[in-house]
Amino acid sequence: MAATGPALTADAPMPPIGRTALRKATWRLIPLIALGYGTAYMDRVNISFAALQMNLDLHFTATTYGLGAGLFFLSYSACEVPSNLLLCRFGARRWLSRIMITWGVLAIAMMFVRTPLQFYVVRFLLGMAEAGFFPGVVFYLMQWFPPEMRARAVSRFYISLPLSSVVMGVLAGALLNLNGRLGLAGWQWLFLIEGLPAVLLSVAFWVLLPDGPGDARWLTADERAWVLEQIRVDACSGGHTHDVWRALRDPRVLLLGLINLCMLGYNYAYTFSAPAILIRLTGWSPTKVGFLIAVMNLLAAAGMILNALHSDRSRERYWHAAIPFAVISVGYLVGGLSVSAWLAVPALGTVVIAHSALQGPLLSIPSMFLKGKGMAAGIAAMNTIGILGGFLGPYWMGVAKDLTGDYLHGLLTLTVPALAAAGMVLWLRRAQRPALAAC
After folding, report:
1. What span, in angstroms and rounded, lies between the C-alpha atoms of 388 and 277?
2. Is the dihedral of CA 24, 29, 32, 35 positive or negative?
3. Which of 125, 224, 302, 355 has the fewest CB neighbours in a 10 Å radius?
4. Ramachandran bin of 372, using left for φ above 0, alpha for ψ from -120 to 50, beta for the remaining angles
């Protein structure tokens, strides 16, 4: 058997074979996963731009739009835990490829929507199709990278979220301007063009993604052995290993789920109405607002990488998430008051940056106490609870818009879930401290 070398500890330097193996894994896996997740996110939220034309063409009210936007997350949340368990059964390559081709087809099908009921049904099916991709790839990466590298590993694929918003912002105006070409509305072109990459990437996942380190032919035998040994040592370091039900009952899983609920609630409430809000504040065209959103998300990508890097180097997760949450609450307060666009727009840009910055540290917390299949189920359960915020947030913003005539009043209320999330992160830090001291 190939020598594995000593297990990696918090204070020991990484051996050369480990650096080589993880460098290969980083370049082979993360760009592909990032492309997949970026495409998923774009297909999830591109209705925020499509709505600028679609709502007028189809006579949708803000409440109809908000309900349809949110229904995606109800089916998504219901299917996440089963999806992650099926990933464990069938393997990452098969299951992630299946997810991508089904959501790609349904994302394109959005161009055929004509009535509120059709809108609701396709959004609901789209959420069902995409369910499990995000928790699946988080669990998958935990099978490759040791704990002290996980915030960076997560942030390096999660950076595709702000970068996909850059692409969407740049493309949206051009696609909407195709209005009338070949008999299609601009919003139909948007769904068609932005849905195709998921179908193509499903083939790339099938061909290029190994099920795990043991199946990676681009690693040498020694490198495979080293990676598998690190994951084995981590799995034996404590926590819920293969006890799925025990992991699901862990109060920390529930608390992280509630943090995610607050986070995704405020984020999707803003994201699905961001183009309309920024047009209202600036008076700019959809094309200019698209470029503004692109710039905000470029800065967010930098913030995500830098905060994750600092979190890994300092081996601290909680303050790296709690402080951005507090910044977000202030940003929504300033943006909602909108005394001046010169204050409101930078405040909302800061919200986008802070939201991206907290992702790596926050998503690294579960692996501190969950292992093996327990981690697969626990991550999915957290996301299942959290993703309900994706339903509540957009629906709330639609109702607030129809009641008050303005999205800005709804924006003010988003300070509450952001502050609540900051408080819960610090509470979790306090609850986790005795467990860490006992290790």
Report:
1. 23
2. negative
3. 302
4. left
The partner residues of 263 in beta bridges, in order of sequence, read: none
Residue type, 378: G
| Residue environment code for 241-272, b if the CB has 16+ CB neighbours within 10 A, otherwise e | bebbebbbebebbebbbbbbbbbbbbbbbbbb
Distances (CA, A) of 201 to 79, 93, 100, 154, 357: 22, 12, 7, 20, 27
User: Nearest-CA neighbor of 259 among 419, 369, 424?
Assistant: 424
Residues 379-415 have pLDDT tens digits of 777 877 888 888 889 889 988 988 888 888 899 999 9
Among 105, 127, 135, CA closest to 37? 135
pLDDT tens-digit profile of 352-375? Answer: 999 999 988 998 888 777 766 677
User: Rounded to an integer, what distance in angstroms lies between the CA atom of residue 103 and that of residue 380?
Assistant: 18
- Beta carbons within 10 angstroms of residue 27's beta carbon: 11
**Can you give the pTM of this predicted structure?**
0.74
CA distance 370 to 366: 6
* Bridge partners, residue 240, by sequence: 370
For the chain, give the number of residues: 439
Q: How far is CA 423 from CA 43, 264, 367, 419, in A?
A: 32, 16, 21, 6
Element (H, E) at 200: helix 186-208
205 CB-near residues (< 8 Å, 6+ apart): 32, 36, 93, 96, 97, 100
Partners of 349 in the β-ladder: none
Residues of the chain with pLDDT under 70: 1-13, 234-244, 371-373, 376, 433-439
CA distance 257 to 212: 27
**Gap between the Cα atoms of 20 and 1, Å rounded:** 19
- What are 426's two structure tokens? 């610090």
Residue reference for tokens 């209320």: 413
The Cα 9–Cα 20 span in angstroms is: 17
CA triple 10-243-312, angle to 5 deg: 20
CATH number, domain 16-434: 1.20.1250.20
Q: What are the boundaries of each domain within the chain?
A: 16-434
* Burial class of residue 69, CB neighbours in 10 A (0-12, 13-18, 19+): buried
Name the DSSP class of 366. Answer: G
